Structures are given as C-alpha cells and as structure tokens.
Fold this protein.
Amino acid sequence: MGRIAAALLAAFSCIVLAVPAQAIDVKAGVLRVDYPMLLPISRYDLRPDDLGFAGAALADEDNGTTGGFLGHTYETRTVAVAPDQADAALDALLSDGVRLIVVQARGDDLLRLTDRAAEAGALIFNATAGDNALRDDQCRANLLHVAPSHSMLSDAVAQFAVWKKWDEWFLISGSNPEDIALAEAYRKSARKFGARINEDRVFEDTGGSRRTDSGHVLVQRQLPTFTQGADDHDVVIAADGTDYFARYLSYHLWTPRPVMGSGGLVPTTFHGAHEAYGATQFQTRFEGLTGRYSKPEDYNVWLALRVVGEAVTRANTADPMGVRDYAISDAFELAAFKGTRVTFRNWNGQLRQPILLYDGSITVSVSPQDGFLHQTSPLDTIGLDRPESNCTAFD
Amino acid sequence: MKSLFLTTALGLLLAGPALAGKAFVSNERGNTITVVNTETWEVETEFFAGNRPRGITASPDGSKIYVCASDDNLVRVFDSTTYEELPSLPSGPDPELFILEPSGKRLYIANEDDNLVTVTDTETRTILAEVPVGVEPEGMGMSPDAKFVVNTSETTNMAHFISTEDYKIKHNILVDQRPRYAHYTADGKRLFVTSEIGGTVSVMDIAEDGTPTVVGKISFEVAGVQPEWLQPVGARVTQDGKRLFVALGPANRVAVVDAQSLEVLDYILVGQRVWQLDFTPDEKYLLTTNGNSNDITVIDVAKEKAIRSVQVGQQPWGVVTID
C-alpha cells in the first residue's frame, strides 16, 4: 500500500467505522500440546492446568465487551493434547469450522500444524515457540508470531548489557538442542551489539538432581569449580532452554558477577508483577478471573486473540486471511500494556514488542534500550531484521 | 441556543477579579493532596487523601474537593478551606477519573476494573445508576449542556456517549489505541479525545442533538523525540475555543494546538511524564502534573511558555484549581 493511501486509510478509518458494523460471530481455538517434562527447578514455575487458556478466557471477555457495542461475539475453544494427538485435535477444530487458531507447541510441531491448517485456509498464531528459523527461511504465510523469537530475547538482554557497559561476557550454555539454539542466539547478539564473549563453556546435562532434598548441595560444589579460571568478564550469560542449571548460577559462581539470560535477569514478554503502562489493570482482571498470577503464555494467548479482536473491530472481518492482511497492514496497531503500540513485521509475521527484563519479582528494565536506533522502529533493533531475513512467504 | 447562553454566563463568571486561588494536586503514590497557592506558587500544605488518589475535581462553588481514592474504592471529599475530610461518596470499584455535572449534583465515575460508569448523587450520597461500558473505562467528559457524558475505554478503544437523561449509550465511536481523556469545547460543538498509545487526538464535531462526527485527527512530531513517546493524555481547551493544550506523557511536553485548524503550533517543555492539566479559573495559567519528576509546571497561557515548576508530592496525577 502506498504511503498516501495508508495515511488516508488511517485518517478515515474512524469515520468509516462510525457506521454500525455487521454482526460477526468469531470462533477461535487454542491448541496446546503438552510435552512430557521434568519438574521445574522452582515451584513458582509449575505449569497451571489452564496455562494459556486463562489468557483466552480473558480475551473472550475483553473482546466480547467491545463486541457488545458492535454486534460481534467471540467464542474460543481450548484443547490440550499429548504430542501424538496434536494433528487429530487440529483436524477436530478445523472440522468444527474454526479457522483462527492459537498454538502453544514446539517449533517442529507448530510448523507441521501450520501447514496442515493452511490446507483448510486457517490462520495460526504462535504463542510459545521461539525458534529463529520460523521467522526466517521456515516462515509461513498463515503463521503470525506473538511469541518473541530467541533473537528478540537475546538482543533484549544484549542491549541492556551493552547499555550497562557490561560488554565482556562469560557464556554458559546447556547441552540440549534448545540450549544450543539459545546459545547461538546470544553469540549472534554479542556480535550484533559489540559485546565480546571472553569465555564460552557448556555445562553438560547429566540428569542431575533438581528438586531433591540435596540438589543444592551438589550444585554448590559443581558450579564454582565449573566456572573457575574463566577469562575476565563483566557478566555471565546463561543459555539454558531446558531449565536445569541457569537458575542456580547467581550465587554459585567462582567469580561473583551478575547473571542474565535464562537465570538472574530474564527476558520475557510478561510476568505477574508487571505494573507499568497500565498493566495493573490487566493483572487485576486476570487474577479476578483465574485466581492466580499471569504467566507469559497467558499473556501471549490473550494478545493473539486481541489481534483477532482488533481486526474484527476495525476491519469488520473474521476471515483468516482478512485478519492476517489487516494485522500486517500499516493501519494495524494495538496497545499491549508495554508503553508503546505493538505491530507486526509485514515481511515475516513477527509481532514487534518491547521485552521485559525480569528478576523474578520486578520489571528491572525494558528493551529496546535508549540509544539503540532503527530507521523503521526502535522495536526492530531486537530480533531478526528485514535485511537478514530469508522469509519470502510474505512477499 | 442554550449552550451559547451557558458559555456566556460562564465567561462572565470567570471574568471577575483574580483572587489568590488554590490548586489541588492528587499524588497517586504519596496518597496525598498538595495545596498550591496560585498567586505565590508556594505549597500551602499536603494532606492525606486516601489510597491511590487519582482523578480530582471541585464542586461548582469551589467549597469541596472530590478525589477518586482508587484503592479505597470510593470518592473522598474534602473541605477546600479547612482540608477536613467530609463524608465519602460511593463510587463503585477502582474509580479512576470522574466528571461533575455543572449543577454539582451528579458525579459520573469511571470504574477501571469493572467496565462501568457509576453515577453518584453527591447530595444523597447514593448510586443512581451503573452504565456498562467498554474495557478499562477512564476518560470522562461532559457536554456543556450536561446532556451527554463521554467515557473513553482504554482497551475497547471507544468513546461512549451516555445520555444523562436515561443513562443509555447513544453513540459509540472507535478511536485510536488507549483513549485516555475526552474534552468538549465550551460551546459544545467540538470534542477532543486523546489516544495515548495511538499517539493521536481524535476530533469530533458535535451536532445540535449531541451526535458526534469524526472530522479529523491530530498527530504530533518533535525533533529528537521518538514518535512512540508522544503519548497524548490530558487535554484542555481555552474558553474561546481557540487553543487546545495536550499533555504528551513521557515526551515531557505539552502540545499547543490551534483548536480550529488543528495545526500543532508549538511544544512546551514541562516536567517528566506529564499527565493531567487544568487552567486557573481566570485562564491565565495552565498547570500540568508531572508524575516522574514529582512537580507541576506552570504555563503562562497567553505567552504559551512554561514559567516555573513547583515541587509537590509523590507521583502527581491530577490537578484542579479554584478561586
């Protein structure tokens, strides 16, 4: 769309929409794949049964209130399945006529489900998978990412470190594939923002004890010896996508240094204590509805369905491609309790959004940091940028 | 024309000699109200105002100060001379902003957590009605003829026009993201709605029967300030309808807008995170609450220049002035 046309559209969208909208009944779905997982290191990270679904319930309420003034109704079905049931669960949603589906699954499953959904003309929202490839050469025209990519998270941490002038890093990564992918994202971020990785070590996952009574005793002996003799560094960056060691690092290092990444100061889309930018209102609504604190997955699902609601409200469409086209158009913008409008990168379907840096109890900072500039949007200083992307599905 | 009459009457009222007036500033985090002398600009006192005081207004005769004590779920009332607390008003949960009708009788309160506008009788101290509105109601404006209350809902992104006769919504107008404030011109012919995250002010012309029509949108641009930080919140229009002032939040500026041509004329640098505004009754000064620098900025309205700042309590949110 030309710039003038976009400006005209923006200027007159209010007027057009002032006329009564047509009645639309929006049917959406949330498909969550539950993988066999070890218990988290911290009890605070236990997964509630309604993880993500609670965000859908709140989104239905929020969208429904707005829809009440416009003749729009919203109904979102939620389904949680084992990995081998995922395809059948998707088929069931599709055969019920659901064409707007939020998926909480790992990257490989997400991609298979997305291609399956494409055959039925359905639009998929990625609420959890961080794989960079999904925003790069593995992108899909019917896949929008509300979840941030690994690179967005690692860039958010890197910017903060560089802003602090902590540009000498000790990278400690895990040995599982998720950990390795995350470590690669941090190496890339270091190069992008001019930090140096003076020491790069892998802490092997040997299936050690996590929450057994003596877990910390072992860790207290293992980690200091593992981290001794490292080259000088300002900060330790942890890449632990499988949650087995990073949370222990802060007080078990040989050289006392702040920890960021998978432990210490953690990048996230949202957390239950986030209050700035009016988020308190989201939290009180969420807690009133569910009786628990919100998790990033809840927020991501809520946000995905708010994207749908916004398209229905402003563009009068619940058609999957109509929603997609509006979402990636210049006219789209959404408030998301992060102090700035969120929009989609129209070349790979990734939601631009600020990333919160969270220490386990408060928002310590929000990236992008001051001083990191970009010709399109400061939000494009984090994550894969247009010139680096090999995504062609949106061309 | 009734609204014109009202304007003239109001104008005459305001043309009287300027006595030493007072500004009352609600301090959201300090749980207090700071009283500032608007002649000497000295702080007179600071008193406890309830938990999380935000929206603040005065009775038409200036004798009472009303404040939304958001975390107390009520509206607290104070004597504007003695600062003694008077009996509170029921508000519904989490009151954020409100507007008092010109007669001083009915108070219209936005309940942020409950998607409601509560109508409270200030004399009988009872709730007259609850009007369901969009998600996260905040801004409250009233037409000068008191026939319509406009509420903005921050997540639904609408301006809801509520009739004060039957408390029914007559019009819903979609505006840009996160509408924070609605303000009519004194002649009632124009309405401005600020959108914090959208970064715009929607401008509506208001017909004789109160029907709104969107006629334009004001955007802002300041060299060296990222567009994302230009977040319109509070707004005020001069009585003659010529100048619109818009607080731009984290951009730390108040925009000066030609309210007729909608051209942005200037940006006045004020304190940090500027939210709400109020004129002194003689309209000589415009006061801004600056939440992050804990002060108010005094703007000379005729010169359109900031002339001083006054330190107040913690996280000032709202401001109201009386003679």
